[in-house]
Amino acid sequence: MEFEAVIGLEVHVQINTKSKIFCGCPTKFGEEPNRNTCPICLGMPGVLPVLNREAVNLGLKTALATGCKINPLSRFSRKNYFYPDLPKGYQISQYELPLAERGRVCIKTGGKEKAIGITRIHLEEDAGKSIHGENLGDPASSYVDFNRTGVPLMEIVSEPEMHSPEEAREYLQNLKSILEYIEVSDCNMEEGSLRCDANISLRPVGQKELGTKTELKNMNSFRNVQRALEHEVERQTHLLQNGKAIIQGSRLWDAAKNETVSMREKEEAHDYRYFPEPDLPPVAVDQDWINGIEKTLPELPAAKRERFVSQYGIPEYDAGVLTASRSVADYYERCVSLAGNPKIVSNWVMGDVLRVLKEKNMTVEQFSVTPERLASMIGMISSGTISGAIAKTVFEEMSATGKDPKAIVEEKGLAQISDEKAIEEMVDAVLASHPVELETYKKGKETLFGFFVGQAMKAAKGKANPSLINKILKEKLSRLKGCDQ
Fold it and tell me: Are 163 and 223 in a shared domain?
């Protein structure tokens, strides 16, 4: 029997506010444990939460960017459970009345476009962080850091409409791109600003009824999401094919062992004993508020991708790579505005620029090769000042030192030789020093033309104009071949 995977994702996004969702404590990452705390986020008796308006603004911005219906009235609830890093014994979240519902994120896999529905977007507070003693040289103890307690989160829940790990990864990447474009989060997965839980079940192909699901918790990379789902498809398929039942529950992904591990049986909604938060009034959102947020929306990734194809005439693949990040898209457009040649600029950005950013683990804003410098270097190629091969050397020097390309070319004597007389003398010397190859060429082995080009470039130390070398070589070899006939 063949089975079909049914996947839905719950994405937790740390909202980009300076203070926590219900108090004035800072949200800065990496501070000393328990430094960013106060009686409110520590759940002391008698304190009252006050909702951070900016958190709501950014939630509304996300709802608009994903085509959600914004509810005119949303309400916070208490989600009750007991864990050491939850000081109040409950989490303030939204339940039956979320901020927004029924949106979508479009993906493209296998050459086909598909819209993945968003069930809901709601706001909530984050919990703290448990630190176990073995990581601190104290195996007998565990510690709790409450710095993260009360940090504003936005939970984005998808419909169970993905049917492969590849679709899930594409959805998550596209959602992250939207969130970065609208600047609601830095989406730093290593710091936990973007975390993902995945619900997955299997059912026989053709069956409409969903199978028993398992939930994969707190994955912090695209690769781990895909690998965990691939493993879970294999595990559940093996169980079902052998007549065994799937046990509903939460599982953790062990990247070292490449497997999922049972964590606990799944709680149902009634286990959390939700009830309305008595200390917070409902959130009322009117059309004027929505209109004000809508005006702040930038051009979104899908629209920018389509524009890049139509405006710059670059392939759809190039446009997809360049628009995945708003900062990279801005870098590309600035460079094109200065250098023209959209496809050439695309090749440099997709190839060399993105390669160095990955190697150095930096953002394009931190990169020493500014759009102005890259455009200047491309202009030098177009004018014949340097060759494409020499440009690679110049680019590496720019990325290492941050120097201007013109200064590098001048300092290192990398200017291209375009003097026809000088190149002709080099070609004559090459032909004279390789008489055997020359005779073989004249007898019909024309593939040796590339050999002569290579030798001429070597003699010029890579600085000769390649088109001139080709032109002069063709003329000379043609005359020499004609003399023997």
Answer: yes
